Structures
1.
Amino acid sequence: MAQITLDGIGHAYGGGPARSDKDYALKPLHHVWEAGKAYALLGPSGCGKTTLLNIISGLVIPSEGRLLFGDRDVTRLPTEQRNIAQVFQFPVIYDTMTVAENLAFPLKNRKVPKAKIDARVQEIAAMLDLTSDLKRRARGLTADAKQKISLGRGLVRSDVSAVLFDEPLTVIDPALKWELRSKLKEVHRALDLLMIYVTHDQTEALTFADQVVVMNEGRAVQIGTPSDLFERPAHTFVGYFIGSPGMNFLDGHISGRTITVGGHAIALGSAYPTLADDAAVKLGIRPDYATLTGSGGLPVKVRRVDDLGRRRLAHVSLGDQPMVAFVPNGLSIEGDEGRVHFDPARTHVYRDDKLVEGVAVAGLQPAYAEGSAR
Ligand code: ATP
């Protein structure tokens, strides 16, 4: 097993090289997928996830860059010579074979000794709760069970360079989806294979992956752990896309350690020496870290409160800018007047949609004041 390196891999459909940025379905990308790790490619429809997965599997030859499996340049090699396993959206199985025969097939094909095949089939079946179905023909099984067999066929070989999953839970019933998501994570830990998982579902990506590649418009906008993406989105797109609801972004102007939003001055937890005085920025804060309070904090108009069972979220306006704030247990909201407290350690500054690195200021307490009107 080896790492996979994307060395400036980019792709424009249509045969020729990209003439401008917008010709790219996948903008050039440098990245190393480490052996044994679990990755997810996450992004909205059309962002280039499948193009990247197909480049790795060999279905698409990239218009630029090199793809290396270990030290071996596989950029132009056909799929059969890449030693990868794939699981697709819909089951790819033999209906007339039993579950055991389906699972054994990729190993039999490679002339693995029978005793080894039997042991591995038992192991994979146990991981996917298929043991009691091993002797049944695939034909009579539900769509869910058939897709589990497909997953098993993808996981049964221990010598692959990578296992690629393309939205593998699409046909799975919602209740079982929840179970299989965590199951796949367990399976990854047990099998120690490099796995790359394409999805547009953030819960699937964040549950499964050690590292998530968030893609938008053909670009990998951030590659990070689930916690990186939640706590420090590198781009406003990641802030919007990850989290439910997404991050709040408020237009403001920054001067030193103070940002003015809708006429209110907010002292920040960090200094931003790289920004010019009075620079136009966005203040980013997750709804979980903007808390509605009984008193203290910035005055807001409360438009609506959503009770989501485990938590309540208030839709408020700060000046004329809408945002969502967390409502603590026990706080009663009378009328439409409220106050919001921002956790300064969780408040980020974005310039041209990119995160600006701040320099932490020790011991700073949040402070609010009426600033010069903006
Ligand atoms: P989805 O989740 O809808 O499958 P995706 O993120 O996987 O989307 P891709 O399928 O990689 O995105 O598509 C990226 C871009 O490339 C899109 O603009 C798409 O229209 C375009 N594209 C994809 N396949 C082809 C093709 N064979 N020929 C031309 N353009 C294509």
2.
Amino acid sequence: MIVAMQEAATEEQIQSVIERMVELGFNVHRTTGAQQTILAGVGTPAHFDVHEFQVCSGVHEAYRISSPYKLAGRSFRPEGTIVRFANGVSIGGDEVVVMAGPCSVESREQILLSAQQVAASGAKFLRGGAFKPRSSPYSFQGMGLEGLKLLREVGDITGLLVISEVMEISQIELMLPYVDCFQVGARNMQNFNLLRELGYVRKPVLLKRGIAATIEEVLLSAEYILAGGNYDLVLCERGIRTFETYTRNTMDISAIPVLKKLTHLPVVADPSHGVGRRDMVPAMAFASVAAGADGLLMEMHPNPEKAFSDGAQSLFPQQLDKLMDGLRALAPVVGRYIAKPAYAL
Ligand code: PEP
Ligand code: MN
């Protein structure tokens, strides 16, 4: 931490700041310039709040130098993390892994058809919510356990891995036998109790960015999961809320290279929730891969116009196919690849 004192700071004020820094465990290096005194605090005490120093009398400004997240920081694993799943699929390597499927599991017929189309497009994961966080309590809330069983069944039929959202601690146990990856939704990014529990689970987690979360907050949420010992963690940019209303959210493409710089964790992008309209999903998907995304999470529905949730942002099956062809061509430009489909309709 660096504390720059005001030009008019008294020696008493400077000493009081130094005392507090020492008390917290900092090794303090003082530079007394012609105009101003600078205090450099070396070391990273477990508990300290830079804001405490910003409001101390005589202080002009205080900055944090080291990051508040330790396990999520790039320096913890400079080579990057590769999260490995069954079927030899991994996220964080050279392959760009695509996860696709409907917003919600609606019926056996709908999810089976979805899985077949997703597998035929060359995606590796089937997505689908069995527990749905809906803005209105009167909207479809998901099929629950029945939906999970269907996801597993059709995932196994088509050779797809399964990702589905976990909304609360009590669902973890229930979901374990059915999913290959837990999805933590935007609304739960700061459900710290849930994050802590997922840290004790030995199954990968995909953590989505909250609608108003800063990148630092995403990384601090990731830290909760890592602190429990679960290193199989993937982050997901899914758009944030801004003053713009044309799109559902504002897809923060720049968060992808920023996260890749700050953390060793793989980063995937969800352009569906990022823009909320299917006509703009392909452009954002291309942009995400070009920006360095390790994967994509996208909504596709066999009949989007009849979808129980998020139909407007769900791709038609043929659109997903076409997009996958385009992405397969783009990926090598940024040193990545997307494998050809191993499943045919
Ligand atoms: C979803 O993936 O369907 C979903 C609810 O996403 P988010 O948490 O990003 O809104
Ligand atoms: Mn959705």
